[in-house]
Specification:
Layout: H1 3-10, H2 18-24, E1 36-39, H3 49-64, E2 68-71, H4 85-95, E3 102-104, E4 109-110, H5 122-134, E5 138-141, H6 145-157, H7 176-184, E6 190-193, E7 202-207, E8 211-216, E9 223-225, H8 233-243, E10 248-252, H9 259-268, E11 275-279, E12 282-286, E13 289-292, H10 303-309, H11 313-324, H12 328-334, E14 355-356, H13 359-371, H14 375-389, H15 391-398, H16 401-409, H17 424-431, H18 451-464, H19 471-484, H20 491-496, H21 505-517, H22 525-532, H23 534-548
Helix pairs in contact: 1-5, 8-9, 11-13, 14-15, 14-16, 18-19, 18-21, 18-23, 21-23
This protein binds glutamic acid (GLU).
Glutamic acid binds at residues 40-42, 74, 237, 251.
C-alpha cells in the first residue's frame, strides 16, 4: 500500500506539513525550568470547584517558575456547548485570583500559539492525522455502529477485551482500491490510529503527583478523527499540548486510564512526553462515608456557590492550597502573615487518593482570613457582593458607611481579634440586628428569669441607661439591677448557692442583650449600643415590651 497516496486521497486539502507547524510554533524561549501549563475546559457553562482546584495548581506551577499559563477552550463537542460560557469561566476564575497569560480572553485571543479554541484548529489536527496515515500509522475505518456492536458481542461471548484492535480491526488492511470504492459510494469513515502496542508489554512514566506509574501498553486502534473530521480528546490533547509547548499536563484522574493511548500517540508522532500530573477527584464526607462531590447533590461543587454566598477569594485560595499541598498548613503556621505566593507549591505534595473537601474547614480558614482584613476591606467586599446578590442591602449599607465601619471594627485588630465573620451572607446575618428592617428575635429569653422580672429588668434598664456612661459605669448599673431583683452579681455565687438566688448577672444581661440584638450571643453589648445610639436602644426596649406582652 502506498500510504502517501492514501494520505493525499483522504486529505487533499491539507497542504501544510508537520515541519511547517513546528516552525510556526517553535519551542518557547523561556528560562531554564520554566513550566508551561494550561487549563482546557469544555465550555459547558458549569464551572466547578475542580476547575478552580486544577487551575490553581496550573497557575502556581507556571507563575512560580516564570513560565506561562494559558487557557485553551476544548469546544469540539458542540452538543455540550453553552453560549457565554467562556466569559463566565474567565470571570469566575479572575474573581478567585486566577489569571492567564495567554489564550482565550473575553476580548479575543492573545498569544503566539493559537488558535486557542479547538474548534478553530481543524486544519492542524488534519495535518497530523494525514502525517500518521502517510506513515502507515493511521487508517480510515468504515465500520458501522452495527458492525462494531457485532464485534463487541462476539468479544463478549468469547470473554475477550472489547474494542477495535488486532485481528478485530477489520479495516486496517483495506486496499487502496477498496478505500476509494467505499469513499466514492459515500460511506462515512473515521480515522483510527494503528496501534502496535500489546497488553503484554508495560511502559513506565513518572507522574508529577503519583510518581512512577507502570501500565500496559495501548493495543486499541482508537479513533483520532471522528466521521465529522473533528478530533477526539486523545488526539486533540496530544497535538495541542505538543504544539503549544505545554510542559506539565495537570488533569483529573479520570484521564489516567487513557494515558497509554496518549503515550502511544506521542511516540508515534516522535514528540517528547509532557509531565503528566493526574489529580484526584474531590470527595466529601457524607455521614460516615467518603464520596465524590456530586453536581446534583452538592451545591458547593459549583464555583458560583462561593460567589453567591460571598466567600472572600483569599479564603477560597487559602483553603484550596491547604487541600492541594499537604505541607501548606505547616507553612501557614510558620508564616501567618506571608502572602500565598511565597509558598512553594509542588505537585509531589498533591494528594493522590481522593482529596477531601470540607466546608467547615473552609469556614474556619475564612474566619482566620477575614480576621486579618481591615474593617474597610470587609466593608468594601460586602458592598460589592451586595450590589450583585442583594441590591436592597447594598443601598442600605451605602448610606451607613460610618456605622458599618464601626460595626465591623468591633473587636477587630489587636492580638485576639474576633473570628466570627465567615462569608458575606453570614456576615450580613451576623450584623443584621443593627438594621431595624432586618431585626428579629432569634433566641429565647433565659428561663431563669420570670416574665415579671424580664419586664422589671427592661423597665429599670431603660430608666438608668445613659449613653455617656463608659463600659464600667454601664455594667455597674446592670449589677445594681441584678442585686436589687435577687440575682447573684457573680455567677460563681449562684453556682455555689443556687437556692439563694433566682439566677445571676449573666441571665439579667442576656435579657437586655436579647431585647437589643435579638440574640443571646453577640459581641460586646456596650459597644453595640454606642454604635446604635440612644434612640435605637430605646426603640428596641419598647419593642421588647410589645413582643413579650
Ligand atoms: N476538556 C477536558 C476536560 O474538561 C480537559 C482535560 C485536560 O485537561 O486535558 O476534562
Amino acid at each position: 500500500m502506498d500510504y502517501n497516496k492514501l494520505a493525499n486521497l483522504l486529505f487533499p486539502q491539507i497542504k501544510k506539513t508537520p515541519e511547517d507547524y513546528e516552525a510556526i510554533y517553535p519551542p518557547r524561549n523561556l528560562p531554564e525550568g520554566a513550566k508551561v501549563t494550561r487549563l482546557g475546559p469544555s465550555p459547558t457553562g458549569f464551572i466547578h470547584l475542580g476547575n478552580l482546584y486544577g487551575a490553581f495548581a496550573d497557575e502556581r506551577l507556571a507563575h512560580q517558575s516564570n513560565g506561562v499559563f494559558f487557557l485553551r477552550i476544548e469546544d469540539t463537542d458542540d452538543k455540550r456547548e453553552v453560549q457565554g460560557a467562556v466569559p463566565m469561566l474567565i470571570n469566575a476564575l479572575h474573581h478567585f485570583g486566577v489569571h492567564f497569560d495567554e489564550g482565550a480572553t473575553i476580548e479575543g485571543e492573545t498569544g503566539n500559539y493559537g488558535p486557542y479554541y479547538q474548534s478553530k484548529r481543524g486544519d492542524i489536527y488534519q495535518c497530523f492525522a494525514k502525517h500518521l496515515v502517510s506513515k502507515g500509522m493511521a487508517y480510515p475505518c468504515f465500520l458501522t455502529e452495527e458492525e462494531i456492536a457485532e464485534i463487541r458481542n462476539e468479544q463478549e461471548s468469547k470473554k475477550l477485551n472489547p474494542g477495535i484492535y488486532g485481528t478485530w480491526a477489520n479495516h486496517r488492511d483495506l486496499t487502496f482500491e477498496e478505500v476509494v470504492e467505499r469513499i466514492s459510494s459515500g460511506q462515512p469513515y473515521v480515522i483510527r490510529f494503528r496501534s502496535n502496542g500489546s497488553l503484554e508489554n508495560h511502559f513506565t512514566v513518572i507522574d508529577g503527583i503519583r510518581g512512577e506509574l507502570t501500565m500496559p501498553e495501548n493495543d486499541q486502534d482508537v479513533v483520532i478523527l471522528k466521521k465529522t473530521g473533528i478530533p477526539t480528546y486523545h488526539f486533540a490533547h496530544v497535538v495541542d499540548d505538543h504544539l503549544m509547548r505545554t510542559t506539565h499536563v495537570i488533569r483529573g484522574e479520570e484521564w489516567l486510564s487513557s494515558l497509554p493511548i496518549h503515550v502511544a500517540l506521542f511516540h508515534a508522532l516522535e514528540w517528547p512526553l509532557p509531565t503528566y500530573c493526574h489529580s484526584t477527584v474531590l470527595m466529601k464526607m457524607d455521614g460516615e462515608t467518603k464520596r465524590k462531590l456530586s453536581k446534583r447533590k452538592d451545591p458547593e461543587l459549583s464555583l458560583e456557590y462561593y460567589k453567591q454566598e460571598g466567600y472572600h477569594p483569599y479564603a477560597v485560595r487559602e483553603y484550596l492550597l491547604t487541600i492541594l499541598n499537604s505541607n501548606f498548613e505547616e507553612f501557614r503556621l510558620a508564616n501567618p502573615t506571608a502572602s500565598i505566593d511565597e509558598f512553594e507549591f509542588t505537585t509531589d505534595k498533591m494528594s493522590n487518593s481522593g482529596t477531601l473537601f470540607d466546608l467547615d474547614k473552609l469556614n474556619d480558614i475564612s474566619k482566620e482570613v477575614l480576621a486579618k482584613l481591615s474593617a474597610e476591606e470587609i466593608f468594601f467586599f460586602l458592598l460589592q457582593w451586595a450590589k450583585v446578590y442583594q441590591p436592597g442591602l447594598a443601598e442600605l449599607m451605602a448610606g451607613k458607611e460610618e456605622q458599618m465601619l464601626r460595626i465591623l471594627s468591633i473587636d477587630r485588630g489587636g492580638n485576639k481579634p474576633r473570628k466570627d465573620l465567615i462569608y458575606c451572607r453570614q456576615i450580613f446575618h451576623f450584623i443584621s440586628y443593627f438594621f431595624d428592617d432586618h431585626f428579629m428575635v432569634e433566641d429565647d429569653y433565659p428561663k431563669e428569669v420570670s416574665l415579671k422580672d424580664t419586664k422589671e429588668i427592661l423597665n429599670r434598664y431603660i430608666q438608668v441607661y445613659d449613653e455617656a456612661d463608659n463600659q464600667e459605669a454601664w455594667f455597674e448599673k446592670i449589677r445594681t439591677i441584678t442585686a436589687d431583683l435577687g440575682y447573684a452579681v457573680k455567677p460563681k455565687d449562684f453556682k455555689k448557692n443556687p437556692d439563694q438566688y433566682k439566677g445571676h448577672v449573666g441571665h439579667v444581661s442576656n435579657v437586655i442583650r436579647l431585647a437589643i440584638t435579638g440574640r443571646t450571643n453577640s459581641p460586646d453589648l456596650w459597644e453595640i449600643q454606642q454604635i446604635m445610639g440612644l434612640q435605637q436602644v430605646r426603640g428596641r426596649i419598647a419593642q421588647a415590651f410589645q413582643d413579650i406582652g
